[in-house]
Amino acid sequence: MLAFYEWLVTATEEQYTAEADQWIVKNAMEFFYAYTHYYTMMDNRAKNTFWHFAKTGTHRKVSRPVAALLHVYDELDNGTYSRTSDTSITPGKDYYTEYAFDLWVYDCDTAAGIDNNGALVFPYGKEDEDYRVEGEPSSGYAFNGAGSIFWRRLKNSFASEIAEVMNSADAACFNSEDLIEEFDAFQNCFPEEIWRLDIERKYIRTFTGKSVDNSITTGKQNPRFLTSMMQGRKKYQRRQWIRD
């Protein structure tokens, strides 16, 4: 990870654009950027991803090899790749790798206008570098990770590619009626009693100050969950967001 960070912060713009495919699964990162933009999920870029360095199944020539990654470098001989036995970089030698950084996404609880505190406050169209109060930097960025070097460089260097992903995915993945139907079908998998118990445990219990099993009153009342965070199933708000 250190080698990746060093490359990210020291690569010139020319090096970065030429070498990004050698370090990351770029089309996946671009899709994630577009998806999180579509649903105003910028917070999730900073807090809800597990990064990993793994095989991609595709070998790529390494432009500027680094010694720290020799253990995942291969050499090409008569059309066959084999792991290099070099213990230091040999100048002028060609190295290849099928490893790259990718990420897994989980939770994604801040979406479709909900902020990191569970409040429905953001309109559609908020950008990742917007401030909480428009035009006032002192109010702070609206989203976590706004200063991320990785996401800023990806956006600034590959804006046209991200737009392309957004436009192509819009028809294939973001069809409003298909999405609404899919989300509704998933929520319908859970019986009403599950929804009732969820509301009782998260919102009513904390408002009244009951213990987790509702057996005693703790005296610790917290109305915030009920007044600011109980957004329900978002069935109709989701329709407005996706369609409009």
Structure description:
With 244 residues, the protein is α+β, with helices and mostly antiparallel strands. The chain has two domains: 2-174, no CATH class; 175-244, no CATH class. The protein has helices at residues 2-10, 13-23, 26-38, 43-47, 149-157, 159-172, 176-187, 192-208, 224-229, 235-243; strands at residues 49-61, 74-77, 80-83, 96-105. The strands form two sheets. A two-stranded antiparallel ribbon has the order 1-4. A hairpin with a 2-residue loop joins β2 and β3. α3 crosses α6 and α7 (176-187) runs antiparallel to α10. The protein starts with a helix and ends with a helix. The mean pLDDT is 87.
Low-pLDDT stretches: none
* Widest beta sheet: strand line-up: 1-4
Domain count: the total is: 2
Provide the structure class. Answer: alpha+beta
Terminal CA distance reads: 40 Å
Determine the strand fraction and express it as a percent band: 5-15%
Please count the helical segments.
10
Give the helices and strands, then pairings.
Layout: H1 2-10, H2 13-23, H3 26-38, H4 43-47, E1 49-61, E2 74-77, E3 80-83, E4 96-105, H5 149-157, H6 159-172, H7 176-187, H8 192-208, H9 224-229, H10 235-243
Antiparallel strand pairs: 1-4, 2-3
Helix pairs in contact: 3-6, 7-10
